[in-house]
């Protein structure tokens, strides 16, 4: 049983990673036969993994029981980015209003170090970027907001990868975050938030939607 569970976990992690990094893009049909061949496993662990991913909403089935990777619509992107701006905008303001701008500048900088180290791998970079955003909303100490991010984490990562693939430049984003941190240490909310808003709410959303300049 332990061996079967281990194989199921391996299948789950591999398939999930391939969905999140867009190796298996939204809308792609999936079959047990295809995945067992791709993973070099028997059907049982793959079937278990697929059930887990269906329960998470990453894989959907239609009336004929055909499986596909969950689509991400333009409306999904608009709604998620709207919620992110509401949460993170309020959180960023609270960081300054509570006198913790310098403290959070170092906390965000620690996440930025991970982003810079992952600049050559857009999936790893996007994971680090997501952790940076989680650091910002941690100021609320609100479990419900944390759960929102956790429940939408897969979508956030895939949308972020859309942004990069559609022209959002990792190096420029990292450089702008360094400037944002400098403004935080100077307690300059307006300049710091302008960078966060432009890079991560406006440009990020537009690129995820495929809007080009």
Q: Would you summarize the structure shown here?
A:
The protein has 213 residues and is mainly alpha-helical.
Spell out the key features of this protein:
213 residues; mainly alpha; Arc Repressor Mutant, subunit A; Four Helix Bundle (Hemerythrin (Met), subunit A); 2 domains; three-stranded antiparallel beta sheet; 10 helices; 3 strands; 73% helix; 4% strand
Give an account of the 3D structure:
There is one protein chain. With 213 residues, the chain is mostly helical. The chain has two domains: 68 residues, Arc Repressor Mutant, subunit A (Orthogonal Bundle); 135 residues, Four Helix Bundle (Hemerythrin (Met), subunit A), CATH 1.20.120.530. Helix content is 73%, strand content 4%. It has a three-stranded antiparallel beta sheet with strand order 1-3-2. Strand 2 and strand 3 form a beta hairpin.
Report the β-strand fraction as a percent range.
under 5%
Biggest sheet statistics:
3 strands, antiparallel
* Overall tally of structural domains: 2
Shape: elongated
Our Rg estimate from Cα atoms comes to 19 Å
CATH topology of the largest domain, by name, is Four Helix Bundle (Hemerythrin (Met), subunit A)
Determine the N-to-C terminus distance: 54 Å
State the CATH architecture of the largest domain: Up-down Bundle
Structural class by sheet pairing and helices: mainly alpha
CATH class of the largest domain: Mainly Alpha
Fourth-tier CATH superfamily name of the largest domain: GntR ligand-binding domain-like
Number of strands: 3
SS field, number of helical segments: 10
Major sheet strand order: 1-3-2
| Rounded average pLDDT | 92
Instruction: List the secondary-structure elements in sequence, H or E.
Output: HEHHEEHHHHHHH
The parts where pLDDT drops under 50 for at least 5 residues are none
Helix content: over 70%
């Amino acid at each position: 049983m332990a061996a079967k569970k281990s194989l199921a976990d391996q299948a789950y992690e591999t398939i999930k990673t391939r969905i999140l990094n867009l190796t298996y893009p939204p809308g792609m049909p999936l079959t047990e036969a295809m995945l067992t061949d791709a993973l070099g496993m028997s059907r049982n662990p793959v079937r278990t993994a697929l059930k887990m991913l269906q329960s998470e909403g990453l894989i959907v089935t239609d009336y004929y029981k055909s499986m596909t990777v969950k689509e991400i619509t333009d409306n999904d992107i608009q709604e998620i980015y709207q919620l992110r701006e509401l949460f993170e905008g309020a959180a960023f303001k609270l960081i300054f209003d509570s006198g913790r701008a310098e403290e959070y500048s170092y906390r965000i900088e620690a996440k930025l170090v991970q982003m810079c180290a992952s600049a050559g791998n857009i999936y790893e970079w996007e994971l680090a970027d997501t952790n940076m955003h989680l650091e910002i909303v941690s100021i609320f100490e609100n479990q419900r907001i944390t759960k929102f991010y956790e429940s939408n984490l897969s979508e956030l990562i895939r949308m972020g990868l859309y942004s990069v693939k559609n022209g959002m430049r990792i190096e420029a984003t990292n450089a702008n975050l360094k400037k944002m941190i400098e403004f935080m240490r100077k307690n300059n909310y307006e300049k710091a938030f302008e960078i966060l808003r432009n890079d991560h709410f406006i440009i990020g959303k537009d690129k995820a939607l495929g809007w080009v300049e």
